[in-house]
């Protein structure tokens, strides 16, 4: 199986980013490359998000956020960004609450989530000195496929600095036996929010 770790900012979509489209160009290119790598030969694709979601992803839109982009009913932001990146590939959205039971059915997973939102004074949650160290440890663990560290992520600490990814990353790491290859493609925080793109080629753990 394969995993793409992906950001959830709507600014990945050029029609939304407009003047800032170039600012996230490298991140956008990395994200589209990661999805192509992970999904090109996949027979089934899951989009992993926090919570209890369990539905197909065939259409999406950001109209619920007041943005007229997309071709379906309003969807949650991580789902919409996954839909845009998938570019018509069918997928199923699985929440972390259901991952232990459902995720092993798929041979490609898009793990949607970001690091902290408190890395600078201009960040959504303003500067929190705990944010960068938490992010650094998580990014290093993803880049090196350190499953043990990811399984032990302190979710309340990450929640406190506005990180949406750790809940997804921890859930996923708990279901994987080993990672054959890991690549950290991009990290950036132009708005005080940590965005990252990475890929894993891995093997599911046997169900217990």
Summary keywords:
single chain, 208 residues, Protocatechuate 4,5-dioxygenase, Chain B, alpha/beta
Could you please describe the fold and organization of this structure?
The structure is a single chain. This protein is of the alpha/beta class and 208 residues long. The protein has one domain: Protocatechuate 4,5-dioxygenase, Chain B, CATH 3.40.830.10. 32% of the residues lie in helices and 23% in strands. A seven-stranded mixed sheet has the order 3-4-2-5-1-7-6, sandwiched between helices. The protein starts with a strand and ends with a strand. The mean pLDDT is 94.
The gist of it:
The chain has 208 residues and is an alpha/beta fold. It is built from 8 helices and 7 strands; from the N terminus they run βααββαβαβααααββ.
